[in-house]
Amino acid sequence: MKPMYRDCFPPFLQPGERLITASDYCHNAALPLVPAELCTPRAPSALEQRVRGALGNALGRVTKPLGPAVNSRLANNPVTRAVSGLAGNGATRTGGGEGGTGTTYAAGDFGGYSARRPDRDLTDAVFEIQENIEDAAHGAVESMMYGKPMEGGWSSMAGRFLVDLKNAGDEPRFQALTDRRLIVLVDRNKSWLDGTPKCDFGVAVPRANIARITAHPKAATKGRFDVAFVDGSWIALGSLHRENMEGIVAAWNQGF
Predict the structure, then answer these.
(1) Backbone angles phi, psi at 210, to 5 degrees
(2) 196: Cβ–Cβ under 8 A, 6 or more apart, which residues?
(3) Where are the alpha helices (DSSP H) in the chain?
(4) Nearest-CA neighbor of 101 among 151, 27, 138?
(5) Would strands 171-178 and 199-206 be described as parallel, antiparallel, or unpaired?
(6) CA gap 187, 26 in Å, rounded
């Protein structure tokens, strides 16, 4: 267990709780998107406000009401046609399993909204289109190579784990197994100059709620492992380094 992983967790341990092993956290891009109605609204950071303000000022000068000629050029643009095509072909991403909840997303939905809003801020649309396309591409590759990443609906233990992690905000960065819990921390650092993590609590699951932790059989070159819960649901977690994953699985199997 590297010091950079270990030293992040003491502030988040309960009195008397013992850290067993810790590692980096690698998010599985194939995990289903959390429905918008389950997401807690997040206030934009100071950096996001500055970036959006600068973009808004610049874009505001060039996004006047479009004339017929400009509208025609946009409609015939290859990128516009591609995005429109994606919007017309929603892909269902489901938590899987009996009772699993399927939710349909299209590129035009912008992360769960049922219709496009004419007054949507253009910078929000740009960010969300880019994120949705990247997530869909990464998720398709992950699912094709390594199989299903989750079992259970949003009310299952696996579903609630993913919802809570999403609502924690920011990027999951570290994970640990203690004698009481499985814990994931998020990184609040927004600085481009200083990469030192600013860890905060993400989500935790009592060990009593976990049935088993196993290495994924197809993850020969990656650190994916599957956490199965006592209600029958499960979720794929992982590390960038296979040896870190093996440390977590071994600690669980040895009963530490």
Answers:
(1) -100, 130
(2) 189
(3) 3-6, 46-60, 68-75, 78-87, 122-146, 157-168, 242-253
(4) 151
(5) unpaired
(6) 13
Q: % helix / strand / coil in the chain, to the nearest 5?
A: 40, 25, 40
Which tens digit of pLDDT belongs to each residue from 203-241?
999 999 999 999 987 655 578 999 999 999 999 999 999
Cα-based angle 189, 193, 195 (whole degrees, multiple of 5): 45
At residue 193, does pLDDT exceed 60? yes
| Block residue for tokens 């398709």 | 140
Rounded Cα distance, 205 and 144, in Å: 28
Could you tell me if 183 and 200 are in contact, meaning their C-beta atoms sit under 8 angstroms apart?
no
Cβ–Cβ under 8 Å, residues 251 and 21: yes
Strand partners, 94: 102
Determine phi and psi for 135, rounding to 5 degrees. Answer: -65, -40
The answer to whether residue 77 scores a pLDDT higher than 90 is: no
Mean pLDDT of 106-132: 51
At 143-160, the pLDDT tens digits run 555 578 999 999 999 999
> How much is the pLDDT for 51?
65
Angle among Cα 84, 87, 92 to the nearest 5 degrees reads 155
Q: pTM value? A: 0.63
